[in-house]
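Field: sequence (string)
Field: structure_tokens (string)

Example rows 1 and 2, in order.
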Amino acid sequence: MLEGENWEIALALYKGRPIPALLLAHQLMAIKQCLQRGKKGLPDAIAGLDLAIDNLFPHTDFYKVIHKLYMRRLEGTVTHRQEEQLRQLGVKL
């Protein structure tokens, strides 16, 4: 789960960018401190992680694909198969 190699890959983006690296380190420290508070800090730690996950979404290929499907739906060019896949995922068309 928390493999060192994965962290190295993810954090390599901060090479030569000391300010964003420091900001991320502060955020990670805040989550660590929440976890150290035990059960009382758990909701804050989870909320912080959820916020980070949500903010990473626009930077993923998932976002790009979903946006393309959204635009195709608006343009009327989405295929029947794509519509079925979207419905299976819970999208109301």
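Row 2 begins here:
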Amino acid sequence: VAHCVAGPSAVIGASNFFELAVATAIVLFGFESGAALATVVGVLIEVPVMLSVVKIVNNTKGWYESAFSSQAS
């Protein structure tokens, strides 16, 4: 997989559906529930996780490009 595809894919995969999870937990369990609290904390953790994924993907850019170029040959 090329770096230009792997990087955005990893960020999208790390951030998908947190907002939907918060809304669902609040609707099903109410504002006072532990499930709603856990999903809100999950959203707060989302940004550092995405930044970590971006850093890892950028640091391993050579791995992606070397694997991609050897497959294309």
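free_text_note (row 2): The mean pLDDT is 80.
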